[in-house]
Amino acid sequence: xxxxxxxxxxxxxxxxxxxxxxxxxxxxxxxxxxxxxxxxxxxxxxxxxxxxxxxxxxxxxxxxxxxxxxxxxxxxxxxxxxxxxxxxxxxxxxxxxxxxxxxxxxxxxxxxxxxxxxxxxxxxxxxxxxxxxxxxxxxxxxxxxxxxxxxxxxxxxxxxxxxxxxxxxxxxxxxxxxxxxxxxxxxxxxxxxxxxxxxxxxxxxxxxxxxxxxxxxxxxxxxxxxxxxxxxxxxxxxxxxxxxxxxxxxxxxxxxxxxxxxxxxxxxxxxxxxxxxxxxxxxxxxxxxxxxxxxxxxxxxxxxxxxxxxxxxxxxxxxxxxxxxxxxxxxxxxxxxxxxxxxxxxxxxxxxxxxxxxxxxxxxxxxxxxxxxxxxxxxxxxxxxxxxxxxxxxxxxxxxxxxxxxxxxxxxxxxxxxxxxxxxxxxxxxx
Length: 431
What we know:
single chain, 431 residues, mainly alpha, 65% helix, globular
């Protein structure tokens, strides 16, 4: 019998909590040492070297706690307190410590080293926005970042492949703050943590489920690595988690507003925001669909201001470049299906991109017809599936994008059982 992802997750959740903590921390330690040894970029190697020992110590600590709690039959609240203490330790040693180190190294040595390319690209967009210009360069000519130079002019003409709101995270760079604090990662991390914290509090999930969510979003490599090196996907994910929680709590307008903010940052939020409509109810007795759409419609003026008079630059930067349809290709790369097919047929890139898009739409369409999600938990799981398909088939992609389906799948576990039910008599007489 074929083992499905859901079956594997149920098996994982059925393990004693300290056993699966030991398992994921051991795997994280292995991942860290591999990154520290063979990762292509310096910032990944630095994070791996600094994080290997903390993950290993956490693994040992959890094993010891499991043996002790098994003998003493410690209750769940006591175990959860100790699990939370280990999370705090890992947050300090795999996120905060390495982040401070990389911020310092970048500020005191070569400006464009010790950070992903996205950091400098967002900072240049913030510079343009602070000067009253569009974040999109009208004639981009490179992907930015030259490790041998810290001149701002190096990235001035680099592609900005995001929605206009992402430029906000680069605004501190245009101030007179010390370079460590002007780094775009400062706002990226703060926004991600504050938004995720709000989502966690509003989720009303059990402490054990909140611990699992925090592990995957914060201290495991799915969260720790991008936070330290400059991943711009974390605030987008955190906003969509908050949007889904608000929808589960039957606050559709607020959910739509938060979803609009996420969509104003990056296109990757759009599939989740649209799929969330399936968890709303369009009947006249319950206007949740219209209230959600009203909140989501705030995206229109926000994006309109960012795109006014610069539609060509927006299309060139945020659409053609990520799809690999410009002369200069995106640095995103991985041996996934879409990337491999485009690499094998470089002279037919446009045709291959269109075919991949059609295949993706057909797969998602069939899944919608076969397994239509009807509540927030099901929508969250289905969103994870859709973004997994998109990551595998995208013509320019990287393994890091798999953080979306991973965190969303875990979030569906957090939301299970916390959705506010619709009153039974609300649809009386509605066929």
